[in-house]
Amino acid sequence: YLAVANYQNSSVISEIDSVIYRWDGSAFTVFQSIPTDRAHDWENFRLDGISYLAVAAYGSNNVDSVIYQWNGTALAPVQHIPTMGPFDWTFFSINGSSY
User: Fold this and answer.
1) pLDDT of 59 strictly over 70
2) Is the pLDDT of residue 5 over 80?
3) pTM
4) Is the pLDDT of residue 94 over 70?
5) Half-sphere exposure at residue 35, Cβ-oriented, CA atoms within 13 angstroms
6) For residues 49-72, b (16+ Cβ closer than 10 Å) or e, as one string?
């Protein structure tokens, strides 16, 4: 899979879909479109065997960044986190604890 964070389109519209692509054996094809607001970064991580994908949404105002969970067929939102102009996510573990 490949996640593309779309910041804005050519008309300077910031609330546009970011796209998840899936490799079909010869090319990446659109798998899922996710509404975002000035997306800057995606971060994938696994917790307890479950895959997650977090988007850093810069947004035009106070926009939540969102964590999505793989449900077996698609990515579904599981948590909204209030953020102010984030550019990046970083998942890490220290002494067995995940952050």
Assistant:
1) no
2) yes
3) 0.82
4) yes
5) 4
6) eeebbbbbbbbeeebebbbbbeee
- H-run or E-run covering 33: strand 28-37
Between the alpha carbon of residue 49 and those of residues 7, 24, 64, 71, 78, the distances in Å are 30, 24, 25, 12, 16
Residue pointed to by tokens 């996640």: 3
Angstrom distance (rounded) from CA 88 to CA 26: 30
Could you give the CA distance from residue 11 to residue 80 in angstroms, rounded to a whole number?
Answer: 27
Could you give the 3-state DSSP secondary structure of residue 51?
strand
- Cα separation, 39 vs 4, in Å, equals 9
- The rounded distance, in Å, linking the Cα atoms of 72 and 79 is 18
Q: Residue type at 50? A: I
